[in-house]
Amino acid sequence: MTDDRDRWMVLLYEDENLWANATPEQQEVYLVRHRDYEQNAAEHDVVILSSDALRPTATATTLRPGEDRLTTDGPFAETTEQLGGFYLVGAASQDAVVDHARRLPPSYTIEVRPVAILDF
């Protein structure tokens, strides 16, 4: 395994019901924060390589550990926060990524993790 210290996953966690129950005006506030995050990336020496939102956990299929890989509908575990989206970014340091991630909506729990490249 080779570490690629130039790529980072910015994982966004939140109670998905907040978005589902938000008014159009509240949703627009979120979208403005995301646009600001994307438009100001260069100021933080961050390059956005990819990003997407995820559909609600009710649409997921989970494969359980084991040889038979039992599948179930929905998420693996009941949690108050769900993974709702991500950004894959390029940056020189984790500090730069973290500093820039502060621009995202304050209701998110944000996990910043370096990407490791697997050599097969």
Which architecture name does CATH use?
2-Layer Sandwich
Percentage of residues in DSSP E strands? 35-45%
Distance between the termini: 9 Å
Summed up, the domain count is 1
CATH fold-level assignment: Alpha-Beta Plaits
| Assigned CATH class | Alpha Beta
Low-confidence stretches: none
Topology:
Layout: E1 2-14, H1 16-20, H2 24-39, E2 46-53, E3 61-63, E4 71-73, E5 82-91, H3 94-101, E6 109-117
Antiparallel strand pairs: 1-5, 1-6, 2-5, 3-4
Structure commentary:
InterPro entries: Dimeric_a/b-barrel, YCII. Belongs to the YciI family. This is YCII-related domain-containing protein. Residues 8-108 form the YCII-related domain. The chain is of the alpha+beta class. The chain has one domain (2-117): Dimeric alpha+beta barrel (Alpha-Beta Plaits). It is built from 3 helices and 6 strands. It has helices at 16-20, 24-39, 94-101; strands spanning 2-14, 46-53, 61-63, 71-73, 82-91, 109-117. Strands 2-5-1-6 form a 4-stranded antiparallel β-sheet. Strands 3-4 form a two-stranded antiparallel sheet. A hairpin with a 7-residue loop joins β3 (61-63) and β4 (71-73). The longest helix has 16 residues, at 24-39. It is flat and about 50 Å long. The mean pLDDT is 88.
